[in-house]
Amino acid sequence: MIVDPRDVCPGEGPEKVARALAQFSLYEAQGDAAFDEGYRALDAFFGPKGEIERREVLWAWLAGKHTDPAAPISATYHMLLARGVDDGRLAGTRDCFVTLDRAARRCVVLLSHALVLPDFRRTGLAALLRAAPVALARRALDAAGIAAEQAEILLAAEMEPVDPDDSDTAVRLFAYGRAGFWAVPPAVLPYAQPDFRDTAALGVTPVPVPLVAVVRQVGEEDRADISRAGAASFLRHYQAVHAREVPPGDLAPIRERALAGLAALEGERVPLLRVPRGPAEIAGFAPLLRSAVMPLFPPAWRGKAPLDAPERELGRLVAAWSAG
Questions:
Q1: How do the residues of the chain divide into helix, strand and coil, expressed in percent and rounded to 5?
Q2: Cα dist from 17 to 7, 20, 74, 93, whole Å
Q3: Which superkingdom (predicted)?
């Protein structure tokens, strides 16, 4: 079982987590068959949104072909599969990259995708998938000869801005808020994911996807700020992975925009935004709304959906959740 119950934040609900620990087993995918099963599940959900790398790219990572242990930021890819203890059915999957900056003694786990299959939602499995990567980080630090208590461990996730017409965007962030994650203000770190399509073969211009950077500082989940270097590591560690599959020219404008926002901030600590934990805190999503986030990026990156005024969008969001 690749999850330590002590790594699950109390906000996840201890009783539900205990039931999930008894109901499911989590282990790393080994070999083509296990990887294929997990990838097909992820691709069915994330593929239509353009939010997952091509199969051959992730398989090469799993096989270790892209890992360079001597790189300033080393990276390894992991896929976790969750199965029912009783019947062995696939219940969910999580993939992530464990990235390590030895010089800074900083391990950042990039939480790529998480999926709980429909039959197993509301079981507590999602909490296990959010917490399990902490154990992978500790294992990587141990292999590098670095004591976990003398290192910084961050869990990093790319999240969609909140759309008042898509309740799932709020639901997912509620879950991460309860799991100890905070948001780096988009105005400080305007982050975008690169275009993972084979744009050369398609003959199209790459279009980055603006997202919200959320982080869990393991062991300091109640801290409302992060070091400037820690915030920058969100971008730098993701791009250390993306550089293996995305042309440098596609990454440069993403990096320049994100780090320019960070450079404009005064001081060495970056204030974080509390991610709302539930509907009672819905108004706290104001700085994470599409209408607040998308104007930070070039028009070509914003997608086709029109943007409402932030105050009207917030009003619609509050009304939608009040009605629910």
A1: 45, 25, 30
A2: 11, 5, 32, 17
A3: Bacteria
- Is residue 78, in this structure, part of any structural domain at all? yes
The predicted structure's pLDDT at residue 122: 92
Q: Residue range 177-200: average pLDDT?
A: 94
The SS3 call for residue 243 is coil
Residue 324 confidence (pLDDT):
60
**Count H helices, E strands: the chain?**
10, 11
Report the alpha-carbon distance of residue 169 to residue 321 in Å, rounded: 12
Q: 188-208 burial by CB neighbour count: b if 16+ within 10 A, else e?
A: bbbbbbbbbeebeeeeeebbb
Measured in whole angstroms, the distance separating CA 247 from the mean position of its chain's CA atoms is 22
Number of domains in the chain: 1
Domain that holds residue 21: 5-278
CATH number at residue 178: 3.40.630.30
Record the pTM: 0.95
317 lies in a domain?
Answer: no
Cβ neighbour number for residue 249 with a 10 Å cutoff: 8
